[in-house]
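PROTEIN DESIGN WORKSHEET
SECTION A - STRUCTURE
LENGTH: 711
TOKENS:
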């Protein structure tokens, strides 16, 4: 074993001959020292840590359940899991970073390994935390720090800066699996205009393609696609098509032919392209682990950019597999054996399970191979890199052809991909518990490097109610990725698909979101730049008493959310770790009042956003607009809670260039005097004319000051 030092006291340990996963930016140079943790090296390498009664574990990214991961068995192995029930041990992401918090100290760990890793955080034995790494070649990164936040920040520094989307990606996006043609998409667009609902884009699901073939557009369902894309874009509305991992096997289909000719597909044991089936029927999987294949597939996104597309979602890239030839054959044989027979209970369940288990059977992962720098690796060994590397390919192509920022999200991911795209959290359901899940999951994912994140608002599967959509939007209004998406054959879920009242409430919430975009964008950019979290659990700042609160979150340094996530509730208990100002926000109005530290009831109507502002902090608000392209910075409103003094750095740029052109850092300072405030605005945003300050003090007295920026 070799050990090496990275930035800021971070240490790396190298076991065997690991595959270079590209997860971290910093590599470090090995030097020999000994490793003290207990471990057993075999085919599965087991690391073992002692768990004391008060120990907590944070991180591990996209997983269900509590933020404190203690007491579970969580598997890091990307999986197309369509049912997010409490018993599930894995979802689409493999995020091997966590912080083990002890009473006196805390340590971060990252396991740089592309295959399966299982974390038993005290499930089998509540005094032991074991990590099973399914292999013997890996790297382990150990991160010391004086606080959880410091550890996370150091990890983010070695992992590298997150993907930065265009500013328009912070708008509201409507989506639905089942929008079948251009008329229907155009109908959605027009309805948003008619109903005065803001909109920055519409996602296109499978039906825009010809026979589920990547890089095609159905001529029949989407004639004059390019003109349509241009028409919407002129109005500031973007179309975001889906791309799946599998390439349809069909002679004369250019992607298939080129893939074969260029040796781009994953191979089976005999050395022929491996055949699996997904949406288009039989497919081959591009071997994204080959750099030439990433280049080739990445370039194909030009088909979309040539049509005016500036955003894509990569789906089914765990990869999801409906069946492969061998398993299907065995299942069909079994079924024919059963024909005419009197099936007893065992045979019946065997028959039933054999078919049910065709979907995403992990045996498939032993049957196909990747080539990494010419060396053959079974898929199973490098499984967690597949979606990640597909997204790196897409990032390469989109950047090359657009030469500006673009929206890119992926379903499967591993750490490293955070530099190339964002993620949505997959097929959740229209359940209240999944709204709560969404709240809990955001910080865990954010800690692993991903910032452009969000869940399907309203829930993907199942039937959404107007109340659930409204409550969910009250939370998602603060997530960088804000998309309402639903599955085929579920109840329509657009803001106008319910009652007039739901429409009015969601309109007010969405307009509130647009007022927050200047702040959210600024917070996002600063957080990425400074390796700070966008979403932060209370437990990171506060000790006992607040550690267990997992349905309240901090956004940036300024605000705390405490969303309602239960049905038929107009109020909830909020526990404030410090005194804060309570803010209510609608399209036009803002209200402020003081809230003392400690537990209290907070009532929430369905038509507004409500959150808390920390002491000596302020947030800028813009004016709502029908989309980001129409947001104006001429006039800002600043809400501040000042007892002494506060300073806010407001970041803005042109929102689209690579390298953040026209970057502006405006500094706003407020200092409280006896009965007035000193206000200073340094380096004002170039469009800015006035700032309307609304400042609340410790007595709850609000002063309004209109500040004209001298030019
Ligand atoms: O097998 O493209 O998570 O967002 O609507 C389902 C259809 C495939 C899964 C994605 C979902 C998308 C759906 N896809």
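SECTION B - SEQUENCE
RESIDUE ASSIGNMENT:
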């Amino acid at each position: 074993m070799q050990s090496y030092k990275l930035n800021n006291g971070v240490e790396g340990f190298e076991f065997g001959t690991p595959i270079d996963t590209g997860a971290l930016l910093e590599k470090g140079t090995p030097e020999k020292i000994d490793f003290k943790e207990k471990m057993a090296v075999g085919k599965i390498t087991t690391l073992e840590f002692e768990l004391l009664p008060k120990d907590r574990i944070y991180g591990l990214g996209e997983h269900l359940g509590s933020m404190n991961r203690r007491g579970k068995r969580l598997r890091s192995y990307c999986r197309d899991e369509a049912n997010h029930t409490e018993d599930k041990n894995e979802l689409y992401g493999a995020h091997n970073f966590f912080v083990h918090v002890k009473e006196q100290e805390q340590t971060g760990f990252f396991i740089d390994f592309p295959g399966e890793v299982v974390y038993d955080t005290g499930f089998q034995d509540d005094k032991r935390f074991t990590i099973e790494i399914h292999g013997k070649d890996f790297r382990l990164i150990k991160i010391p720090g004086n606080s959880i936040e410091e550890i996370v920040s150091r990890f983010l520094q070695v992992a590298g800066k997150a993907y930065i989307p265009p500013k328009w990606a912070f708008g509201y996006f409507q989506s639905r699996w089942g929008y079948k043609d251009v008329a229907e998409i155009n109908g959605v667009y027009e309805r948003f205009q008619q109903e005065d609902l803001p909109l920055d884009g519409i996602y296109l699901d499978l039906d825009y393609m010809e026979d589920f073939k990547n890089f095609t557009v159905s001529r029949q369902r989407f004639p004059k696609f390019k003109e349509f894309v241009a028409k919407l874009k002129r109005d500031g509305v973007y179309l975001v098509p889906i791309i799946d991992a599998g390439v349809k096997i069909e002679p004369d289909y250019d992607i298939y032919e080129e893939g074969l000719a260029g040796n781009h597909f994953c191979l089976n044991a005999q050395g022929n392209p491996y055949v699996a089936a997904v949406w288009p029927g039989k497919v081959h999987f591009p071997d994204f682990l080959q750099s030439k294949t990433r280049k080739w597939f990445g370039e194909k996104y030009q088909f979309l950019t040539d049509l005016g597309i500036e955003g894509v979602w990569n789906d089914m890239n765990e990869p999801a597999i409906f069946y492969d030839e061998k398993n299907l054959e065995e299942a069909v044989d079994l079924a024919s054996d059963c024909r005419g027979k009197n099936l007893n209970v065992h045979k019946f369940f065997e028959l039933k399970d054999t078919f049910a288990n065709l979907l995403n059977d992990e045996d498939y992962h032993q049957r196909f191979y990747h080539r990494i720098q010419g060396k053959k690796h079974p898929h199973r060994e490098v499984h967690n890199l597949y979606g990640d590397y597909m997204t790196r390919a897409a990032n390469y192509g989109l950047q090359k052809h657009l030469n500006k920022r673009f929206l890119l999200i992926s379903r499967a991911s591993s750490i490293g991909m955070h530099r190339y795209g964002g993620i949505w959290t997959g097929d959740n359901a229209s359940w209240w518990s999944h709204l709560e899940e969404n709240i809990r999951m955001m910080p865990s994912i954010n800690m692993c490097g991903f910032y452009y994140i969000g869940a399907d608002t309203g829930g993907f599967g199942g039937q959404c109610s107007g109340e659930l959509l409204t409550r969910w939007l009250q939370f998602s209004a603060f997530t960088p990725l804000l998309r309402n998406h639903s599955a085929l054959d579920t109840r329509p879920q657009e803001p106008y698909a319910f009652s007039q009242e739901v429409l009015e409430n969601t309109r007010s919430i969405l307009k509130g979101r647009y007022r927050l975009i200047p702040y959210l964008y600024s917070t996002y950019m600063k957080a990425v730049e400074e390796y700070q979290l966008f979403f932060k659990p209370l437990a990171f700042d506060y000790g006992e008493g607040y550690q267990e609160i997992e349905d309240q979150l901090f956004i940036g340094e300024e605000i705390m959310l405490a969303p309602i996530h239960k049905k038929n509730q107009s109020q909830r208990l909020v526990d404030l770790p410090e005194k804060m100002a309570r803010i209510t926000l609608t399209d036009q109005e803002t209200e402020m009042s003081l809230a003392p530290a400690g537990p209290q009831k907070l009532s929430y109507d369905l038509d507004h956003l409500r959150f808390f502002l920390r002491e000596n902090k302020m947030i800028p608000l813009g004016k709502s607009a029908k989309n980001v392209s129409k947001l104006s910075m001429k006039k800002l409103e600043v809400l501040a809670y000042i007892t002494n003094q506060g300073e806010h750095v407001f970041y803005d740029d042109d929102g689209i260039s690579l390298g953040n052109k026209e970057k502006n850092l405006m500094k706003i300072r407020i200092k409280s005097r006896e009965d007035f405030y000193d206000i200073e605005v340094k380096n004002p945003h170039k469009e800015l004319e006035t700032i309307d300050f609304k400042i609340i003090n410790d007595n709850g007295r609000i002063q309004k000051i209109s500040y004209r920026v001298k030019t």
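SECTION C - NOTES
Residues 519 and 620 are 6 Å apart (CA to CA).
The chain is about 25% helix and 30% strand.
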